[in-house]
Amino acid sequence: MSNTSVSATLLDDAATLFIDGEWCTSEQTFKRFEPYGTDRLSGTFASATPAHVRRAYDAAEKAQPGWAATPAVQRANVLRRAADLLEARVETAARRLTADMGKAIRDARGEVLRSAAILRYYAGDLLQPSGETYPSADPETVLLTVEQPLGIVCAITPWNFPFAIPTWKIAPAVAFGNSVVWKPAEVASGSAVLLTEIFAEAGLPTGVLNLITGRGRSLSGSLTGDHRLAALTFTGSNGVGVRLREAVADRNVKVQLELGGKNPAIVLADAELEDAAVQVVRGAMLAAGQRCTATSRVYVQRPVATEFRELLLAQVNRLVVGNPYDEATDIGPMSSPEQRDTVVEYLRLAHEEGADILVGAKADGEGCFLEPTVLTGVAPSSRLVREEIFGPVLVLTEVEDFDEALAAANDTVFGLSASLFTSNISKAMQFVRRINSGLVHVNRETASVEPHVPFGGVKASSSMNREQGKAARTFFTTTKTVYLRSPN
Hints:
CATH class of the largest domain: Alpha Beta
Radius of gyration: 23 Å
Family: Belongs to the aldehyde dehydrogenase family.
Organism: Rhodococcus opacus (Nocardia opaca)
GO molecular function: oxidoreductase activity, acting on the aldehyde or oxo group of donors, NAD or NADP as acceptor
Keywords: Oxidoreductase
Strand content: 15-25%
Helix content: 25-40%
Distance between the termini: 59 Å
Protein name: Aldehyde dehydrogenase family protein
Largest sheet: 7 strands, mixed
Strand order of the largest sheet: 14-15-16-13-12-17-18
C-alpha cells in the first residue's frame, strides 16, 4: 500500500479488523462522523463479534513464540522503522486524528510525533542491559535472572490520545516479545487502522498485532475471558476499569489500569503569576480539557487571588476556539456529541448551584464546541469539584495558605497529577513529599508528561503497575531466576 493511500481503501469497505495479518470485514458495521461538522463522515468500520476476538487470540497465540525468539536487535529495528514511517506520514496521521476526535491540528501533529518518539525510545530500550547476576552460596553456581515476555497482552485504549496512548502500550508490549490483541475506542477507530498499518508495513510479523474494532460492551467478555490472556492494559474511565479488573481477578492475569483524575494546581503568593496563568490554562484547556492529566482545580493564595484571576482570564480569552484544521486554532470541538452533552450537564449544574461563571459555560449550536469555562464560588462538596468532567472547565478557589491549599488538593478520591507554583524551594519540597499524586509538577502544567519516565497515579487514578519508561519493561516481562552449575 502506498504512503498516500493510508487507510482510505480500508475505510471505504469497512475492512478494519486486522487479524492474523489480514484485513477483515464483519456483517455489522458502524459509522463515525467528525466532531467538527457532525454531518461529515469520518469512516465506516467493522463491528467485531466474539468470534473475531477468538480468531485474534488464535493468531496471537500462534505468532508469539516466534516473535519472542526473534533477537532484540531485530525487534528494535521494526520499532525504528515504524517511527520512520509515522514521521514520514505525520500530516496524514494528524488529519486522521483530528477527523476522529477533533483535536486541533497543531496538537494532533505533536501527538503523532510523540508516538514516533515513544517507538524510538523502546527501540533503544531493547538494547539496554537485561537481567541481573547475583553471588551464590555455591562457588560452582552462577546465579542470574533473565527477562521473558508474558505471552498475549490485551490492550484497550481510549479516544483522547488515539496515537500516543496505544503506542505507549503496544510498543513496549511487542518490544519485549509479547503479542497483542488491541481494542481501541470506537471514536478512535480511524487512527487505530492507520497505526496498525504502520506496524504491519514496518515488518511486525503476522499475528503479533491484531486489531479489533467495535463496541466495547459487546466485546469485553470475550476480550477478558480468553484463558490465553496473560496481561491486560487499559486506559479509560474508573467504572470500566473496575469491571475489567474484576473480570480477570480469578486468574493470574497482570493488570495495568490508568483511570481518572481531578488534578489540582496550587498558586502561592510568591509564584511568577503570569507564567503560572499560562501553565494552568494550557493544562486545563488544551485538547478541550479531554486529558486525564488536565488541570481541573486551582487553589490560589488570597493575597494574589485577584491579580492571578485577571491574568488567568486574559489567557483564556486569548485562546482560539474553532476549526481544528486551522493552524491558528488552539482548541477544537469536543470529541463527540455525547461527550459535549456530558460536559453541558456539568455546566447546567454550575448554573443551578449559583457558581460565579467568570468566562464561558456556553455550548455552540453547531458541531461539538464548548467555550473554555472558569468557575468560582463552588462548594468543596460540589460534583464540579469531586468528579472528573473531562472538558474545558476549571474551578478557581481562594485559600489562606499552603497548608489549606494542600489539604484541599488532597481531598479527592483521585491522585494522578498535581502542580505547585512557587519560588520557594522549601515549599516545593514539602509539596513533593505531601501531595497524594503519582505525577508531581513544580512550576509546570499538570498535563505535561515525557515517555521515558514512569506514568501513573495513586488512589482511584491507577493500579499499582506504572506505564512508560522502565516501568513498562517491568510490566510486560516476567523474571526467571536461573541457577547455572556445571556438572562435575
